[in-house]
């Protein structure tokens, strides 16, 4: 990598750090190409990104961002998973780490809050933003459904009474 490529890489990483809601730092412990491809696919499906970056360049990119506390995690063969959704990247990496011992969660950060590996796992256990939205919509719709059922129930009961009288008179 020449100097201009390094500067471009630092600028790209810095822009990423300024846009995302969570960053998870992982250590690659000899993943095969197939495992790496599977991990990238799983992370992409979750709406997150996964990037292997040189530690020195990553340390330069996190300066003057909320993720400056991640400096100590960039040692050895590391990679960065990030997402705008505060749960997506953590959930995808933790789910993949359960299937193989070739990846280690080093730590992470949610804004300026630095997370230990246990903190990243706790974050991954939380419902995603879409799941929370679905639950909220369900809670909002439930009372309206009950009101509609209550308003139509008396009319249905009245119709059944009239039907019973009509059947009685016909018999």
Ordered list of secondary-structure elements with their pairings:
Elements: H1 3-19, E1 22-28, H2 33-45, E2 49-52, H3 55-62, E3 78-83, H4 88-99, E4 103-110, E5 113-115, H5 117-124, H6 129-170
Helix pairs in contact: 1-3, 4-5
What can you see in these coordinates?
- The chain has 6 helices and 5 strands; from the N terminus they run H-E-H-E-H-E-H-E-E-H-H.
- With 171 residues, it is of the alpha+beta class.
- The model has no long low-confidence stretch (mean pLDDT 86).
- The chain has helices at residues 3-19, 33-45, 55-62, 88-99, 117-124, 129-170, and strands at 22-28, 49-52, 78-83, 103-110, 113-115.
Helix residue percentage: 55-70%
Spatial strand sequence of the major β-sheet: 2-3-1-4-5
| E-strand count | 5
Taking the sheet with the most strands, its summary is: 5 strands, antiparallel
Average predicted local confidence, pLDDT = 86
Number of helices: 6
Shape: elongated
Order of helices and strands: HEHEHEHEEHH
Low-confidence stretches: none
Radius of gyration: 26 Å
Structural class: alpha+beta
Question: What proportion of the residues form beta strands (DSSP E)?
Answer: 15-25%
For the record, give the distance between the C-alpha atoms at the N and C termini, rounded to a whole number. Answer: 95 Å
């Amino acid at each position: 990598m020449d100097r201009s490529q390094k500067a471009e890489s630092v600028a790209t990483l810095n822009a990423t750090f300024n846009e995302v809601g969570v960053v998870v730092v992982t250590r690659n412990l000899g993943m095969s190409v197939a495992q790496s491809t599977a991990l990238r696919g799983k992370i992409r499906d979750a709406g997150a990104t996964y990037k292997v970056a040189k530690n020195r360049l990553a340390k330069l990119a996190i300066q003057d961002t909320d993720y400056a506390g991640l400096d100590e995690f960039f040692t050895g063969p590391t990679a960065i998973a990030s997402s705008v959704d505060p749960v997506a990247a953590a959930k995808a990496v933790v789910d993949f780490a359960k299937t193989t011992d070739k990846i280690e969660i080093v730590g992470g950060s949610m804004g300026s809050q630095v997370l230990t590996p246990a903190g990243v796992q706790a974050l991954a256990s939380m419902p995603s933003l879409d799941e929370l939205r679905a639950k909220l919509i369900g809670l909002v719709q439930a009372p309206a459904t009950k009101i509609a059922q209550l308003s139509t129930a008396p009319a249905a009961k009245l119709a059944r009474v009239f039907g019973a009288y009509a059947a009685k008179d016909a018999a």
